[in-house]
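User: what does the whole thing look like in 3D?
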Amino acid sequence: QQQVKQSPQSLIVQKGGIPIINCAYENTAFDYFPWYQQFPGKGPALLIAIRPDVSEKKEGRFTISFNKSAKQFSLHIMDSQPGDSATYFCAASIGAYNTDKLIFGTGTRLQVFP
Amino acid sequence: ETGVTQSPTHLIKTRGQQVTLRCSSQSGHNTVSWYQQALGQGPQFIFQYYREEENGRGNFPPRFSGLQFPNYSSELNVNALELDDSALYLCASSAYTSPGANVLTFGAGSRLTVL
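Assistant: Here's the predicted 3D structure for the full assembly of 229 residues, as structure tokens:
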């Protein structure tokens, strides 16, 4: 049973485009929603995270949009660059002390072409 | 400040064998978590260790076991290897300090192939 569903599986955009990656969840007890970025041969690294009491969070070119009623959240990458080419994972967890016990989505492979 | 280091980076085992993977946590971190990442999938939580005790476990059988040492380093042991155990095993450390502060720092992983 997959608790966090992520789409699309892969995404190709031109430099400067705005790729959008979507995640949906069922468990309303989730209260922490991070996005991780993974480059080939590396472990995932935290990119940005949000809690359900806000609808949007921006950090640099990365924005999370959160829709609590729809149980969906998405990652937007503004002015995408070839260096953003990586696999992106959404995740979720339950409980203030459990932000390191994550349930991950299946990942989205993003390719940004010059 | 060193990050999370894992060893070995790659290894090949045969079905039924046992394997031990090792992890050194990031300086200042007292919690270690292990995740299994199958090819083309997201990481799956195996278990977490805090103060040398298991502090949460995912849906993995008992043949997956672990240890945390006083210096916060950790081992993952898998007995009776099965073909489906082939995956990238990721170790991640975090600082169990306050609510919401437990951010994972991952190592690059140990790639296990079971033949």
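In plain terms: Chain B touches chain A at residues 4, 31, 33, 35, 40-45, 48, 56, 90, 92, 94, 96, 99-109 (CB under 8 Å). The mean pLDDT of chain B is 93.
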